[in-house]
Write a structure and sequence with these properties.
EC number: 7.6.2.1
Membrane topology: Multi-pass membrane protein
Strand content: 15-25%
Enzyme class: translocase
Distance between the termini: 84 Å
Number of strands: 35
GO molecular function: ATP binding; ATP hydrolysis activity; ATPase-coupled intramembrane lipid transporter activity; magnesium ion binding
Shape: elongated
Mean pLDDT: 79
Helix content: 40-55%
Number of helices: 38
Cofactor: Mg(2+)
Radius of gyration: 37 Å
């Protein structure tokens, strides 16, 4: 009993948790009915914003200081305020304030846009029925229980239960384009007892309550019932399901108007529950940044510890501990040595804290935000047919596009066009092809089955005829300037079947539609005789068939599947009146259930969906998208493994894989399917496949040509593979064996996949020991789970809807655009941000290490080497713009070359530019340059009479000389690394250097009244007045840049020719090889 109660209380989506009672029109039920218990529900306001006017500052500050770097600089700033430190609190406070302010402005602006969008939705006008009249009000003022009137082409303001419509049969047609993007027309129904209320007065007289489940996000599930009260009669209960629920965001079509009651409002609507925040994805670059940050934090602490220890070792003698010119106060003498040591440690931490680049995070955010516009502006990724281009839903993963190792793609609508064309049908083993002559078969049984077959095709669908309509700014139903009718449906397969039967078998369609009884899902042929028609996949139909030409139809279905056609089987059975009445009774009881309704409906369906007679099968073609094969081939050459995850049958999916060049004719196919595991145990099949691929891998090191393998697995076998073993060891746990097989296959096809299984596959690969970067791409609602699971999710704006595009990180019009998205944009983004991160750490090492060295020459007195203004503006002004611009427009290689040679993608794969050896190289380069700056200036200052008048240089002149060499060196290094020069590069790079010179002249050339003391007065001009200083600056810059110049020369003479050979296409290499009899050489 306890377990039952607990499971009911903790149930998920599949079980009933709680219910709500809605009083239509806010009318109390009759006294004899249940007690009136008013309930409070949220209003109809939509809130997608994150902040309010009152909580923006505290909430935003809390979120920003959760970052390690920001919190660290806040601590440093507080230390500078509390104790006597060698630098002013402004040097840490101003950069921190700048970073926090810029980030807050960016996030505040984005949230203001969300507020603006919310207001436009909440202030939308809505027609509400009150006291028999229609009153116009704002959408935000709607309450649960209000009755509203919605007209054609208007959007539903909240989740509604349909009461009646202007159509005589109580139906209405709806498109959910703004909800899940599906532009097909769906049919919704009013219950028979309310469909007769056609006017405002009649609707207002309705006395009823609705009992339904509490809000939950599943768009296609709803459980409820309506109780209708009439005078002196018992209430009438009618079931309510998803076919009665009109979702917020959907649009009324092909219907004059409807009356409906609000059931879920505001943030309780299914749309709001579906579009709440997704889990945050972090790129590999961000993880590398955090790792590098921890390393530099350890370096910082070690520097502070070393200097603190050396300070007290140097001051061990009395004359150094308290020299004659610097006597201590009594308070300092009485302070404990541990406290003094800790204070000195904090002071050194403050002095060296600039090695942590706080401005790097805001620069990276700006680079990602601004860089994302290049994808949206790319004209090559604009589709003329759809009238849309690529969209960026998140800019945090731009660089991840250049690190993809696994691509998981849907088939229908992603690799194919999802534009179905009727090819043929098979009736009792006889094949019919449109527009061809077929030999008639005159047997009575065959003619009866033929008639029933086409009757089933004409009845088992949701197709409607529609006149002229505009969908997504595209006019449909216009031919030669005149309006014509066309078909609309929730499935393109159904439209193809109906069009095929209309053109070829019009007489059957006209005759059958006249006999259709639309109230029930069974159809009468003769009085008191009932037929049940069924159309579905072969795996669903064949197990329920007991008669018919099963083997002939099965053979044709398998042949069509091999050719890449989509097949459906058609069957029927006769029902006696008693069976019909029993089925209706069970279905009615199941529909009225609030708890376990789906399970009870499934049991009721199982009782009648059996003992079918097979009539035949249909075949429709879904053509491959333009350049889909070329895109997959390019991705494979780039080193990515492509997996196709689809719900189609194995033969159909395999044919598409061959057509798209995922599988080649030389590929040896390994099958891991239910059919094979029925012949052998799963354990034996897995180990056979494992031995096959491992044997080939052992031969790959020899001169034997490597065999290409492709794996096919179905959903049932995948469930068995992923099923956890009850034992800790043994043959039950097959995950690692399965992964080992997949690693040695060039491509994998997963067929008969449920949406959840697609996400499980992606999660399995993500969690493998290599931790590869994954990308999932799809176009339908069933692809959302894997799109959210993958590191990078890409949605295609196709015919199955826009839900995948809305839940993705990026959206593209066609599959072919994935090639440029990864091979060009991904490559560039990764190169740019990797250079940005390494450059930031490099220039801060160059900046702070001379300060560390300076302590050995000033008695570890915490004397700063640079002026406060230089400390503050180094990362904010002097060196920030050049690297930001570089990270936005740098192109180390042409776009055409990247598209022509996909193997270049491998050069940056596996986070190649942010590995520890590369990080160590940049750090050592920074240390080398810092030593050149400091010791070069030190030996230059060995002769203290540098000026023409014999005046000596002081410590501020020494620091300014080092800082000048530093700024010019790090900026010119970036100029050396730049391959793609534009006028903007020249303006920013030379402009930054000019700004530094002008600022230094003004800072030291004017007596500023707001400064208590001005130690930099005339220092910069005095330094520039010395000829040796000019010579020293030029010489030190040249020596510092020497390693970069040597590296660039070696790259151009040794590495670049090899890369150029690789980038030449195969035909050019063969031509050169034929024209040269000796070893090929290139004069570069």
């Amino acid at each position: 009993f306890f377990r039952k109660d607990l499971s009911t209380f903790c149930a998920g989506e599949e079980y009933w948790v709680d219910s709500r009672t809605v009083y239509i029109g806010h009318k109390e039920p009759p006294p004899a009915a249940e007690a009136y218990i008013p309930q409070r529900y949220p209003d109809n306001r939509i809130v997608s914003s994150k902040y309010t006017l009152w909580n923006f500052i505290p909430k935003n500050l809390f979120e920003q200081f959760r970052r390690i770097a920001n919190f660290y600089f806040l601590l440093i700033f507080l230390v500078q305020l509390i104790i006597d430190t060698p630098t002013s609190p402004v040097t840490s406070g101003l950069p921190l304030f700048f970073v926090i302010t810029v980030t807050a402005i960016k996030q505040g602006y984005e949230d203001w846009l969300r507020h603006k969008a919310d207001c436009s939705i909440n202030e939308c006008p809505v027609d509400m029925v009150q006291q028999g009249t229609v009153v116009r009000t704002q959408s935000s003022k709607l309450r649960v229980g209000d009755v509203v009137m919605v007209r054609e082409d208007e959007t539903f303001p909240c989740d509604l239960i349909l009461l009646s419509s202007s159509r005589g049969d109580g139906t209405c047609y709806v498109t959910t384009t703004s909800l899940d993007g599906e532009s097909s027309h769906k049919t919704y129904y009013a219950v028979p007892d309310t469909m007769a209320f056609k006017t405002e007065q009649e609707v207002d007289s309705l006395h009823a309550t609705i009992e339904c489940e509490q809000p939950q996000p599943d768009l296609y599930k709803f459980v409820g019932r309506i109780n209708i009260y009439k005078e002196r009669e018992d209430p009438i209960a009618r079931p309510l399901g998803a076919e009665n629920l009109l979702l917020r965001g959907a649009t009324l079509k092909n219907t004059g108007h409807i009356y409906a009651v609000a059931i879920y409002t505001g943030m309780d609507t299914k749309m709001a529950l579906n579009y709440q925040s997704k889990s945050q994805k972090r790129s590999a670059v961000e993880k590398s940044m955090n790792a590098f940050l921890i390393v530099y934090l350890c370096i910082l602490i070690s520097k502070a510890v070393i200097n603190t220890v050396l300070k007290y070792a140097w001051q061990w003698s009395a004359d150094r501990d308290e020299p004659w010119y610097n006597h201590r106060t009594e308070i300092d003498r009485e302070r404990h040595v541990v406290i003094r040591a800790f204070t000195d440690f904090l002071a050194f931490m403050v002095l060296f804290n600039y090695i942590i680049p706080v401005s790097m995070y805001v620069t990276v955010e700006m680079q990602k935000f601004l860089g994302s516009y290049f994808i949206a502006w790319d004209k090559d990724m604009y589709d003329e047919e759809l009238g849309v281009g690529a969209q960026v839903n998140t800019s945090d993963l731009n660089e991840e596009l250049g690190q993809v190792e696994y691509v998981f793609t849907d088939k229908t609508g992603t690799l194919t066009e999802n534009n179905m064309e009727f090819i043929e049908c098979c009736v009792d083993g006889h094949v019919y092809i449109p527009h061809t002559q077929c030999v008639p078969v005159c047997t009575s049984v065959y003619q009866c089955h033929e008639d029933l077959f086409f009757r089933a095709l004409c009845l088992c669908h949701t197709v409607q005829a529609k006149e002229e309509e505009t969908v997504d700014s595209i006019k449909r139903g216009i031919h030669l300037g005149k309006p014509t009718s066309f078909y609309i449906s929730s499935s393109p397969d159904e439209v193809a079947l109906v069009e095929g039967n209309t053109h070829s078998y019009k007489q059957h369609l006209i005759h059958i539609i006249m006999d259709r009884n639309s109230e029930i899902q069974m159809y009468t042929i003769k009085p008191r005789e009932y037929l049940l028609f069924c159309k579905g996949a072969d795996t669903s139909i064949f197990p329920r068939v007991v008669s018919g030409k099963v083997e002939q139809v099965r053979a044709r279905v398998e042949q069509n599947a091999v050719e890449g056609l989509r097949t459906l089987c058609v069957a029927y059975r006769s029902l006696s009146p008693a069976e019909y009445e029993e089925a209706c009774h069970q279905l009615s009881d199941a529909k009225l259930a609030l708890k376990d309704r789906e399970q009870r409906l499934a049991q009721a369906y199982d009782l009648i969906e059996r003992d079918f007679t097979l009539l035949g099968a249909t075949a429709v073609e879904d053509r491959l998208q333009e350049k889909a094969a070329d895109t997959i081939e390019s991705l494979q050459k780039a080193g990515m493994k492509v997996w196709v995850l689809t719900g189609d049958k194995m033969e159909t999916a395999a044919a598409t894989c061959y057509a798209s060049k995922l599988f080649r004719r030389s590929t040896q196919i390994l099958e891991l399917t239910k059919k094979r595991t029925e012949e052998q145990s799963l354990h034996d099949v897995l180990f056979d496949l494992s031995r096959t691929v491992l044997r080939q891998r052992s031969l790959s090191g020899l001169s034997v040509e490597c065999q290409d393998y492709g794996l096919i697995i179905d959903g049932a076998t995948l469930s068995a593979v992923l099923k956890p073993s009850p034992e800790s060891s043994g043959s039950g746990n097959y995950r690692e064996i399965f992964l080992e097989i997949c690693r040695n296959c060039s491509a994998v096809l997963c067929c008969r996949m449920a949406p959840l299984q697609k996400a499980q596959i992606v999660k399995l690969i993500k969690a493998s020991k290599e931790h590869p970067i994954t990308l999932a791409i799809g176009d339908g609602a069933n692809d959302v789970s894997m799109i959210l699971e993958a590191h990078v999710g890409i949605g295609i704006m196709g015919k199955e809807g826009r839900q995948a595009a809305r839940n993705s990180d990026y959206a593209i019009p066609k599959f072919k655009h994935l090639k440029k998205m990864l091979l060009v944009h991904g490559h560039f983004y990764y190169i740019r941000i990797a250079e940005l991160v390494q450059y930031f750490f490099y220039k801060n090492v160059c900046f702070i290490f001379p300060q560390f060295l300076y302590q050995f020459f000033c008695g570890f007195s915490q004397q700063p080497l640079y002026d406060t203004a230089y400390l503050t503006l180094y990362n904010i002004s002097f060196t920030s713009l050049p690297i930001l611009l570089y990270s936005l427009i740098e192109k180390h290689i042409s776009i055409e070359m990247l598209k022509r040679d996909p193997t270049l993608y491998k050069d940056v794969a596996k986070n190649a530019l942010l590995r520890w050896p590369v990080f160590l190289y940049w750090t050592c380069l920074g240390l080398f340059n810092a030593c050149i700056f400091f010791f070069g200036a030190y030996f230059l200052f060995d002769n203290t009479t540098f000026t023409s008048n014999g005046q000596m240089f002081g410590n501020w002149t020494f620091g300014t000389l080092v800082f000048t060499v530093l700024v010019f060196t790090v900026t010119l290094k970036l100029a050396l690394d730049t391959h793609h020069w534009t006028w903007i590069n020249h303006f920013v790079i030379w402009g930054s250097l000019l700004f530094y010179v002008i600022f230094s002249l003004l800072w030291g050339g004017i007596i500023w009244p707001f400064l208590n003391y001005q130690r930099m007065y005339y220092v910069f001009m005095q330094m520039l007045s010395s000829g040796p200083a000019w010579l020293g600056i030029i010489l030190l810059i040249a020596i510092s840049l020497l390693p970069d110049v040597v590296k660039k020369v070696l790259c151009r003479t040794l590495i670049c020719p090899l890369k150029l050979v690789r980038m030449l296409n195969y035909s050019q290499v063969k031509t050169l090889m034929r024209t040269t009899s000796t070893q090929m050489s290139f004069p570069f």
